[in-house]
Amino acid sequence: MVPPAASVSTFEDSSALMHAAAEKIVTVATEALSARKRFTWALSGGSTPHQLFSLLAGVPYAGRIDWDRVHFFWGDERCVPSEHPESNYRMATETLLSAIHPPAGNVHRMPGEAEPSAGAARYEATLRRAFFDTFGAVTERGLPRFDLVLLGMGTDGHTASLFPGTAASAETNRWVMPVRVDQPVPHRLTLTFPVINAAAHVLFVVSGADKADSVRETLAQQRATDTEPSLPAARVRPVRGQLAWFLDAKAAARLHG
Ligand code: 6PG
Questions:
Q1: Atom of ligand 1 nearest to the CA of 211
Q2: Nearest C-alpha to atom 3 of ligand 1 is from which residue?
Q3: Is it the case that residue 227 has pLDDT exceeding 90?
Q4: For residue 3, how many other CB atoms are within 10 A of its CB?
């Protein structure tokens, strides 16, 4: 049985998936803007969000969000300069931010150019200033509470830059960690599970047949609340928040039988 706060939605193809995800983001943003006059959003990286961010930058979605009141953060970043082709910030800028021109003070970039440990500490200070001093959006456990954390998932079950077997994926206190992983860009910064699980909404957007096995295994582990998950994405269980999985049919292909 999927935990009450989780839901799994499947869409016929990647285009339908991205339109549904855009609608979901507009809905969550509208709710946050109406209740708190701001929308705090941690963006995911990788390739999946390209199409989603491009959709949000255009008609009809762009006109449905008051972008001047949106605060952009990142769930993870590669430790490269912001203009580097592998930068998640660069990808979001090219697909979304350059079209909607948010106030510069509302774009809270992870400092990928910094030495990783220093960058993690700097971003933790950024979160503290924003969520404690400016927004007052803090959970009863003293954690920053994002309105939305957008996540992808790798074929190994990683999410953000929380990879299987890493110290960062086991971290229970720090909010931002430097990681070194066996990926084309090995050094990264990532939010940790305490922060992800403090969010009001967490949305996974996963597309493609190559993810089908890890989707099946992750959801099975996420539901088995009596055992410690081995896959990082299965550790996403918002404490007081809504978890939604948006999948295309190819990524969901192993969920039934
Ligand atoms: C990153 C992402 C990462 C991504 C998955 C899926 O910085 O790469 O945050 O967690 O969501 O690796 O990547 P794709 O969307 O490219 O399959």
A1: 17
A2: 160
A3: no
A4: 12
The candidate with the shortest Cα–Cα distance to 88, out of 123, 18, 80, is 80
Q: Are strands 242-248 and 201-206 parallel, antiparallel or unpaired?
A: parallel
E strand segments, the chain: 6-11, 39-43, 70-74, 76-78, 148-151, 176-180, 187-191, 201-206, 242-248
Contact 52, 18 (CB under 8 A): yes
Question: For residue 178, how far is the Cα from the chain centroid?
Answer: 17
Q: Are strands 148-151 and 39-43 parallel, antiparallel or unpaired?
A: parallel
Between strands 6-11 and 242-248, the pairing is parallel
Tokens 């992983």: give the residue: 181
Q: How far apart are the first and last CA of the chain?
A: 16
Kindly report, residue by residue over 86-138, the tens digit of the pLDDT: 999 999 999 999 999 999 999 999 999 999 999 999 999 999 999 999 999 99
- In the three-class reduction of DSSP (H, G, I as helix; E, B as strand; rest coil), residue 219 is classed as helix
Mutate to test the pocket of ligand 1, among 48, 193, 235 (most ligand atoms within 8 A of CB): 48
| pLDDT at 2 exceeding the cut of 50 | no
pTM score above 0.85:
yes
* Tokens at 254, concatenated: 């192993």
The string of DSSP letters for 172-214 reads SS-SEEEEE-SSSS-EEEEE-HHHHTTSSEEEEEE-SGGGHHH
**Cα 163 to averaged position of ligand 1 atoms, centre (Å):** 11
